[in-house]
Amino acid sequence: MVDSSGDPLLRVENLVRSFGGIKATDNLSLDILPGELHAIIGPNGAGKTTLISQLTGQLMPNSGAVHFAGRDVTRLPSYQRSRLGLARSFQITSLLPDFTAADNVALAAQAHDGHSFRFWGAARKEKHLRDAAQAALARVGLAQRGDVPVSELSHGEQRELELAVALATKPQLLLLDEPMAGLGVTESARMVALLKELRKEVTIVLVEHDMEAVFALADRITVLVYGRVIASGDPDAIRNNEEVKRAYLGEQHAVTSHG
Amino acid sequence: MKSHINVRNVVVALVALGLLLLPLYSAVTGNIFILTLFTRIVIFALAAASLNLIMGYGGMMSFGHAAYLGIGGYAVGILAYEGIGSGFIQWPVALAASALYALVIGALSLRTRGVYFIMITLAFAQMAYYIASGLSRYGGDDGLTIYKRSTFGGLIDLSNRVQFYYLCLFCLFGGVYLIWRIINSRFGMVVRGVRSNEQRMQAIGFHANRYRLVCFVISGTICGLAGALLANNTDFISPAGMYWTRSGELMVMVVFGGMGSLFGPVLGTIVFLLLEEVLSQFTEYWALIMGPLLLLIVLFARGGIMGVLGRFSRG
Amino acid sequence: MLVLVEQSLNGLQFGLLLFLLAAGLTLVFGIMDFVNLAHGSLYMMGAYFAATFVAWTNSFILGILLALGATLLLGIALEFIALRHLYGRDHLDQVLATFGLILFFNDAVRLIWGPAGLSLPLPAWLTVPVQIVPGVFYPAYRLSIIVVALAVAALLYIVVMRTRIGMLIRAGASNREMIGALGINIKLLFTLVFGLGAALAGLAGLMQAPILTVQIGMGENILILAFVIIVIGGIGSIRGAFMAAIFVGMIDTLGRAFLPDLLRMVLSSAAASTAAPALSSMLIYLLMAIVLVVRPEGLFPAAKR
Ligand SMILES: Nc1ncnc2c1ncn2[C@@H]1O[C@H](COP(=O)(O)OP(=O)(O)O)[C@@H](O)[C@H]1O
Ligand SMILES: [Mg+2]
Questions:
Q1: Could you give the residue ranges of the DSSP H alpha helices within C33-87?
Q2: Which CATH class for the A1-85+172-259 domain?
Q3: Among B172, B232, B191, which Cα is nearest to B45's?
Q4: Is the CB of A43 within 6 Å of ligand 1?
């Protein structure tokens, strides 16, 4: 499934981004291969969210480059990157609170279905948008919740909706920023099962604190500390990496060898 | 499906019916004043509805909407002064000039957000105000009298009170219908989505400002039409009509009625202008009541009239 | 040449007045995140109070001091009764509510003082021309405006930059949570700042009163100018407000003084005299538009939020 022979889907080269004095991304390079599920872990404040935001265009780097599918996207605004097939979820849920779940997803589908300078026909009556929305909702287990306003969804449902919105843009690369943040045990298990399905279809970058989930899902893991990559490799290599143990895993998570 | 019969919709239907039948009432009772008053109200309602499109649905708090009233009006006034009396020329020019102005100031203003946006739209409108004051050929500060209303090749006579009223009402209903189609269209969903969460909309692939700008232009164009109507109604046009307090009044009408509700601005305008009319019959100092009332509405009735009616609908 | 000196001084004087108005506005805005359209009404009230109290007391100085106190009290009362409920609301609410207050104040003034407007005559000792440099005379009153306004500006600078309360004000402008965390009585601080802003607006109004007529709506045009100034200067920045105010005062005054002659070279005389004031007013808004487009946060942003 992972294609390590050809070109990477996403290539990050010497990326730097600082906030005042802090280097949140410090000369970071990284390759994401087509088909892999690549986890990015690291303590809070390591610069994981900042990295994702530079990959999807919410933030611009100070220097360095991002190539996606062979194209230099370093300076592209986020809406153009979305068109190219980059999609993300946000660590802090970012949805359209005044709309229903189905609207949220339908708009994502609409964004990738020609232009939206159509002023007359009712968008909610366009069947293929509705169908696309319904499909994405079903995918994440929200098939029955389409008509519910976002503000009335539970936190867990909102996290699932984040994912459905990203999926509805038909991405080539899905970047998920702590999709399990704040979820309960059963909800987390559902999310893991869902990601296991999704990874068959789309390349995924997963930022996650839940080590059990990370080691169960990831093909490769990259460890960030202070904006720098301190290790990158397959789960076993990371588990046994002395520096990682010292800097991160050792102190806070007892990772069992069966993952 | 939710039932469509609720207090809110009944009130809206009754008001619409009332507006349709008003000339009849005026004819039966011989009360001409009420027809003139409501012609004015209907025109301002159109302006308020256009402002609501960007404020209520687009989240763009424009404090310069009176400029379009002026631009639409001056287009009619200047062309009439130069001997071009046909509405078929005057009105398209009024709309095009408003659209062009909206395009330029929108492209600049939309680089800013929040209170800076409020201020820059205000500043541009003041600029338009001073440009108008500087038009010495067209009366400068004193304004310009329009001796002949727009002609439409005998199709409709704007000097006829009833015909003019129905033309205005047609424009209002047409405008509201247009806005209704727009806000439910693909385009409208995007604009409303951007208002709700711009970052999210960008992330799923929408160039937010492009949609905002088009919405801004549509709104300005509709308001320019209101300006053309208003100039014909008053037979006069002057910079005073585009002073910033007029923009403030338009905002008040929108908020009175309920921002982001389709018919709210119409109700808001009716209430605001009627209140002004009624209060000023009791006292010369009507603003002593209107001012604090506005404060109270902002403090305690944020959804405006539509919000209050909506509460009845649910309860 | 003499005219240029005189007009430059006029521009400086007008700019300083604008600064007094803008300083209060920018402080209130920077600290409370509050847009106060009624600031112009306080300016108007300052002028009306001054005209009234000077007539009552028959003393220019005493009347002016009373007017200043009255505006301060009015500002505090206004904050206490109405405006503090609007902190934390969105800017649109604040714009609308204070727009309502403008309507209220205009009609209240009409009710109390009548529609005609008042004049505030100067005492004889302020009407003599003063020789500032050999051969150049300048009205004593305008000169005293410059002196007073500069003194107030300096005082304000010292208060904001050198005192504890100023430290709180600056802290509040850049980080609202922080002053809360310091255990400061924020409500009191806000009321105080608002009162200070009101007094400054009143001072601007009453100093302007002898030069222009005291009339309804006098605060509205100048309020918009003050907003332009704080937007150009950067919201919350006293220094920015000062620079922008002087700049705007100069453009406005010099534009009005010299544009007619310049325009007469290309336009007919009548057209030039209509177009010139319009053009000089426009210049200011044009300047603001350019600043906002190039630097959306203003020239001297007080703090990056
Ligand atoms: N907008 C911002 N302004 C200033 N500092 C920021 C900003 N965003 C992130 N940071 C800083 O950058 C560092 C990395 O943050 P972040 O990417 O959110 O880390 P993570 O997602 O790994 O927890 C932190 O020190 C954080 O304080
Ligand atoms: Mg994070």
A1: 39-57, 60-81
A2: alpha beta
A3: B172
A4: no
Which is nearest to C201 in space by CA: C76, C54, C63?
Answer: C76
Does the CB of B133 have a partner CB in chain C at under 8 Å?
yes
Q: What is the pLDDT of residue B313?
A: 61
What residues 282-301 of chain B have any CB closer than 8 A to a CB of chain C? 284-288, 290-295, 298-299
pLDDT in tens, B281-293: 888 888 899 899 9
Tell me the chain B residues in contact with residue C274 when contact means C-beta distances shorter than 8 Å. Answer: 133-136, 140-141
CB C233 within 8 A of CB C26: yes
Q: What tokens appear for B65 in the block? A: 């909407």
In angstroms, the first-to-last Cα distance of chain C is 46
Looking at domain C2-294, its CATH architecture is: Orthogonal Bundle (1.10)
| Amino acid in position B16 | A
Whether A25 lines ligand 1, by a CB cut-off of 6 Å, is no
Q: Residue of the nearest CA to atom 14 in ligand 1?
A: A47
Distance A181 CA to ligand 2 centre (A): 10
| pLDDT tens sequence across B4-17 | 788 889 999 999 99
Write down the domain spans for chain A: 1-85+172-259, 98-170
User: If DSSP states are collapsed to H, E and C, what string results for B130-183?
Assistant: HHHHCCHHHCHHHCEECCCCCECCCCCCCCCHHHHHHHHHHHHHHHHHHHHHHH
C96 min Cα distance to partner chain B (Å): 7
Measured in angstroms, the CA of B165 and the nearest CA of chain C are apart by 30
Task: Please report the DSSP string for chain C in residue order.
Answer: -HHHHHHHHHHHHHHHHHHHHHHHHHHHHHHH----TTHHHHHHHHHHHHHHHHHHHS-HHHHHHHHHHHHHHHHHHHHHHTGGGGTTS-HHHHHHHHHHHHHHHHHHHHHHH-SS-B--PPPGGGTSEEEEETTEEEEHHHHHHHHHHHHHHHHHHHHHHHSHHHHHHHHHHH-HHHHHHTT--HHHHHHHHHHHHHHHHHHHHHHHTTTS-B-TTHHHHHHHHHHHHHHHH-TT-HHHHHHHHHHHHHHHHHHHHHHHHHHHTTS-HHHHHHHHHHHHHHHHHHHHHHHHHH-TT-SS-S---
Q: What are C42's two structure tokens? A: 């306080």
Encoded tokens for B313: 């609908």
Nearest to C270 among B136, B248, B292 (CB): B136
Determine, for residues C270 and B299 on separate chains, whether the beta-carbon distance falls below 8 Å.
Answer: no
Measured between beta carbons, the chain B residues lying within 8 angstroms of A98 are 192, 196
User: Which residue ranges in chain A fall short of pLDDT 70?
Assistant: 1-5, 249-259
State phi, psi for B220 to the nearest 5 degrees.
Answer: -65, -35
How many whole angstroms separate alpha carbon C156 and alpha carbon A81? 50
Is the CB of residue A35 less than 8 Å from the CB of residue A4?
no
Which chain B residues are within 8 Å of C113, Cβ to Cβ? none
CA–CA gap between residue C57 and residue C64 (Å, rounded):
10
Scanning A57-96 for CB atoms below 8 A from B yields: 57-58, 77-79, 82-83, 87-88, 90, 94-96
Residue in the block written with tokens 């005379």: C137
Closest CA to C193 of C292, C96, C72: C72
Flag residues of chain B having pLDDT under 70: 1-3, 313-315
The class of domain B7-313 in CATH terms is mainly alpha
B30: tokens are 């011989």
| pLDDT under 70: residue ranges of chain C | 1, 172-184, 302-305
Which sign, positive or negative, has the C-alpha torsion B1, B7, B12, B18?
positive
Nearest CA residue ID for atom 1, ligand 1: A19
Interface test with A, best of B178, B184, B204 (most A CBs within 10 A): B204
- For A18, the token pair is 């600082």
User: Would you tell me how many other CB atoms lie within 10 Å of the CB of residue A77?
Assistant: 14
